[in-house]
Amino acid sequence: MGREKLFYWFAxxxxxxxxxxxxxxSDDVFDSFTSMxxxxxxxxxxxxxxxxxxxxSIITNQCKGPQYPPDRCCSAFKEFACPYVxxxxxxxxxxxxxxxxxxxxxxxxxxxxxxSECREGKEGLACPALSPSASENASGSQLICNxxxxxxxxxxxxxxxxxxx
Length: 165
What we know:
Elements: H1 2-18, E1 24-25, H2 28-34, H3 57-60, H4 70-81, H5 85-89, H6 95-107, H7 113-117, E2 125-126, H8 149-164
Helix pairs in contact: 1-8, 2-6
């Protein structure tokens, strides 16, 4: 009976871990780009995605001024940014500020355009589920990914089961 109860709690744990993955672009990424203060004690890690050589025509072909229609600009922004949602939402890296720097460089957009126009809810912009090929961008370079928490927890659970029997 004790093993069944233990198995039940591990099943609940893995279910909760499965819901912990992010599928939306947080509103905090807009704030990290607009705050331009000194942060000597808060040095950010380099972004694992090389935003310099990505194809920005997804955004620049659809989001044009002087009107900058929110529906077209936000859908283009989501199409470009959603494959990198995990990296952009990681506020310990400079991914969001680097990405917005290149978007503004190539598109010459007014400051804060996407932050003010693109709002979907309290979680930020919702990203659709990505296909396995979404981690490869248009230039052919691979995205550097860290193992997911769910994968690591599953491996730990399997090791625990093998040790138990």
